[in-house]
C-alpha cells in the first residue's frame, strides 16, 4: 500500500481543508489523476503520485488536515511501467 498525503501548496503551509474528493473507494488512479480539491490560502487540486486502486479514504470532506498526513490509501499496481510511459497494455 502507498498513501496520497496532504501536500503543501506553498512553503509555509501547515494544513489544508479537504473541500471535495474527486475519487471514491474502488476507483483506479494513475500518476497525475486529480484526487481532491484542497483549500488553504487558495484553492488547489491534489494529484495522485501513484498508479493503482483507491482502497481507503482516511478523512472527511470539510476536514482540516496537517501537511504530510495520509488522506488516501492506494493499492499500487505492480505493472506500473506501461502507465508511466503513457502506453496502454
Choose one word for the global shape. Answer: globular
**CATH C-level category:** Mainly Beta
Distance between the termini: 22 Å
Instruction: Find the structural class using helix and strand composition.
Output: mainly beta
Main sheet, how many strands, which sense, barrel? 4 strands, antiparallel
Q: Write the CATH homologous superfamily.
A: RNA polymerase II/Efflux pump adaptor protein, barrel-sandwich hybrid domain
Architecture in CATH?
Answer: Beta Barrel
Helix content: under 10%
The proportion of residues in beta strands is 35-45%
CATH topology descriptor: OB fold (Dihydrolipoamide Acetyltransferase, E2P)
* Average predicted local confidence, pLDDT: 90
Q: List unreliable stretches of 5+ residues.
A: none
How many strands appear in the DSSP assignment?
A: 8
Q: What's the Cα radius of gyration?
A: 13 Å
Characteristics of this structure?
4-stranded antiparallel beta sheet, 45% strand, mainly beta, globular, 89 residues, OB fold (Dihydrolipoamide Acetyltransferase, E2P)
Quick rundown:
With 89 residues, this protein is mainly β. It is 4% helix and 45% strand.
Write up this protein.
- There is one protein chain.
- This protein is mostly beta strands and 89 residues long.
- The protein has a single domain, classed as RNA polymerase II/Efflux pump adaptor protein, barrel-sandwich hybrid domain (OB fold (Dihydrolipoamide Acetyltransferase, E2P)), CATH 2.40.50.
- Helix content is 4%, strand content 45%.
- It is built from one helix and eight strands, in the order E-E-E-E-E-E-E-E-H.
- It has one helix at residues 81-84; strands spanning 2-5, 15-21, 28-29, 34-39, 43-47, 52-57, 64-66, 70-76.
- The chain has a four-stranded antiparallel β-sheet with strand order 1-8-6-3, with no helix packed on it.
- The mean pLDDT is 90.
Amino acid at each position: 500500500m502507498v498513501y496520497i498525503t496532504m501536500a503543501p501548496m506553498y512553503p509555509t503551509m501547515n494544513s489544508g481543508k479537504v473541500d471535495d474528493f474527486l475519487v471514491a473507494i474502488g476507483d483506479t488512479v494513475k500518476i497525475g489523476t486529480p484526487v481532491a480539491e484542497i483549500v488553504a490560502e487558495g484553492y488547489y487540486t491534489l494529484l495522485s503520485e501513484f498508479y493503482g486502486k483507491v482502497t481507503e479514504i482516511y478523512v472527511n470532506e470539510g476536514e482540516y488536515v496537517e501537511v504530510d498526513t495520509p488522506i488516501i490509501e492506494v493499492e499500487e499496481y505492480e505493472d506500473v511501467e506501461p502507465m508511466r510511459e503513457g502506453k496502454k497494455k
